[in-house]
Amino acid sequence: IFAKVEMAPRDPILGLNEGFAADTRAEKVNLGVGVYYDDNGKIPLLAAVRQAEKARLEAAPARGYQPIEGPAAYNAAVQNLLFGAGHDLIAAGKVVTAEALGGTGALKIGADFLKQLNPDATVYISDPSWENHRALFQNAGFKVENYPYYDAATRGVDFAAMKASLLGLPAGAIVVLHACCHNPTGADLSESQWGDVVEACRERGLVPFLDIAYQGFADGIEPDAVAVRLFGNSGLQFFVSSSFSKSFSLYGERVGALSIITDGKDESARVLSQLKRVIRTNYSNPPIHGGAIVAAVLNSPELRKMWEDELAGMRDRIREMRSSLVDKLAAEGATQDFSFVTAQRGMFSYTGLTVAQVDALRDDYGIYAVSTGRICLAALNTRNIDYVAKAIAAVTRA
Ligand code: PLP
Ligand code: TYF
């Protein structure tokens, strides 16, 4: 039965971890995968998470099946974070939320549900985007195309091209939008540009699918929700996949959610019933632990404050690494101007490094970056940044 199975290509990002693990050089640095490390190079276990876990362990709750859509306390916490506590949409019963297996799981159940609703629709993702967007929607049976996004010349968004493209899409087209901290470019839209995107979606009858995997990593929980809030106040129906992998440092617990905004209670009930069917036939119901911890933190004023402070600490540390890298590259005599790195938002920088330069970083220095030139700033720390700056300056020297 397996004789004709071909070798599948490795994930271009997760695949880097294998090469990195096998590298025996002590000075090696993994700038590939989008994971936040602390200044000691460790994935942090947040104090708020630890406290919530301690309380749970002591309470020793039973491990029955969860509701198919996950617990109400978790889903309410997700909605409050996305739209702001007490938002009209929530009060009016217009938000259907289901816990999901990370942001990826949320995208997947959203994609499967959309396939039932509109099987012939095309999905549009940004050029470039997180590679899994394309694969995930293709595997759900959709044709996937790009809309223009990044402009290498300005190292920002070519918004005129993006907007013109959206205004040319057919009604019912599904548009995947990075709500903040664009992966991989770090280039985000301004609030007024988001307003234009909302209007383009309204005018063309598009199906917006917002993906927010880094809420809190640009400017903070509230400001990073600007796109979600603008869509939320627009009266449109849309999808949001959200993730706590990064913001709670709970990568392996697989905690995320899909939220669907409907036109009212009756539509919500029907949508939820179908979404539950999608979930039931995929994995029945979500695991308990991660969601219970996130809900406990978000629903306790004390733990929530602790979490927000820790999240701010992660955000600030990444910012420091950005400006420090720019300074050190200049001090190393880099022939290129890298000041754009401080304008990019979130975990990533699209450095403009070529494939050959990325290869040289790996071969000559044991520094691993994505072949597109994307690096994860959250993997830099006060001990490896000098080495990385020296290496980047060397491989980019004309
Ligand atoms: N969407 C984007 C844009 C991402 O960068 C990621 C990163 O992991 C995800 C979704 C998936 O998040 P998760 O790890 O929670 O599945
Ligand atoms: O872009 C990243 O690095 C993160 C982590 O298939 C990731 O989003 C990368 C690839 C993948 C799943 C997660």
TrEMBL record:
GO biological process: L-phenylalanine biosynthetic process from chorismate via phenylpyruvate
One Gene Ontology cellular component annotation held by this UniProt entry: cytosol
Keywords attached to this entry: Aminotransferase, Pyridoxal phosphate, Transferase
Source species, domain of life: Bacteria
GO molecular function: identical protein binding; L-tyrosine-2-oxoglutarate transaminase activity; pyridoxal phosphate binding
Domain Aminotransferase class I/classII large: start-end pairs: 27-392
Similarity annotation: Belongs to the class-I pyridoxal-phosphate-dependent aminotransferase family.
Subunit structure: Homodimer.
CDD domains in UniProt: AAT_like
Enzyme class: transferase
Enzyme Commission number(s) from the entry: 2.6.1.-
Cofactors (names): pyridoxal 5'-phosphate
Name of the protein in question: Aminotransferase
InterPro entries referenced in this protein's UniProt entry, alphabetically: Aminotransferase_I/II_large, Asp_trans, NHTrfase_class1_PyrdxlP-BS, PyrdxlP-dep_Trfase, PyrdxlP-dep_Trfase_major, PyrdxlP-dep_Trfase_small
One Pfam family matching this protein: Aminotran_1_2
SUPFAM superfamilies per UniProt: PLP-dependent transferases
